[in-house]
Specification:
Strand content: 15-25%
Strand order of the largest sheet: 1-2-4-3-5-10-6-9
CATH architecture: 3-Layer(aba) Sandwich
Helix content: 25-40%
Radius of gyration: 16 Å
Shape: globular
Length: 242
């Protein structure tokens, strides 16, 4: 039986401060959203990639992954890159998954929160996107898995095959109430979402042809989860550039 594993609260202000400083070193423009959140953008080519994390305040690997990739200068320079390192700053500060009791990752159709409304307004200024990656964690899972919503080429098998060499994969036939398409891969039908859209479904309906949600199990060490998320992000970008 998997039990929730607690980790020390992430100092999200320190993470975002380090991220902002590193952005300047790598020619990313950092923008203040006016509510404690930031985003970064770098213009580099014809393709545009979107990466976000921290929409749930109890999932620390995502913000650390975006920070670590900036530290290691892993974002490709020949594409446009839009980064949202933490979409729920208050959740991290308060130690809560939600924002004022609202799951922000179910607020992307008819938004109830001004946080979601502002995020959508900003995102709409930078599209269309060639690929989106949303970083998440799952305290109930015993392994890595991935959601894939795509209209053309699929990279999910490549991700699972690579991650499985060094990290456990969730092998259950049902994950988070979704039937798996293949081991560790969930492919939701966007037409089944009538309300309570997650961020990734909204990006798909916005016209982004390839959308991935990466899920790491919080039962494993935070260091390993960040390493795995970085590896998956890097591989997705490399595959899409080919």
């Amino acid at each position: 039986m998997i039990t929730e594993k607690r980790h020390p609260k992430l100092n999200i202000d320190e993470v975002l401060s380090q991220f902002s400083s590193l952005c300047k070193l790598h020619s990313f423009e950092v923008n203040d959203m006016g509510d404690g959140r930031i985003f970064a953008y770098r213009n580099g080519g014809n393709k545009t990639y979107y990466i976000s994390s921290g929409i749930h305040g109890d999932e620390p690997a995502g913000p650390l992954t975006i920070l670590s990739m900036m530290h290691l200068n892993l974002y490709p320079k020949d594409v446009n890159v839009l980064l949202f390192p933490c979409l729920n700053v208050e959740g991290f500060k308060n130690g809560t998954r939600s924002y004022n009791g609202l799951d922000l990752n179910r607020d992307y159709k008819k938004e109830k929160s001004n946080k979601t409304e502002l995020h959508k307004q900003i995102v709409n200024k930078f599209g269309p996107f060639d690929m989106s990656v949303c970083l998440h964690e799952d305290w109930e899972s015993d392994g890595f898995y991935i959601y894939e919503q795509c209209d053309n080429i699929s990279y999910a098998n490549d991700i699972i095959n690579t991650i499985s060499k060094t990290f456990p994969i969730n092998t259950h036939k049902t994950i988070d109430r979704h039937s798996v398409d293949r081991t560790g891969i969930i492919k939701p039908n966007k037409n089944k979402y009538k309300s309570n859209w997650p961020e990734a479904i909204w990006l798909w309906k916005l016209g982004c042809p390839q959308n991935y949600t990466i899920e790491t199990p919080t039962e494993t060490s935070l260091k390993d989860r960040v390493r795995v998320q970085m590896k998956a992000c890097k591989l997705l970008m490399d595959l899409n550039k080919q």
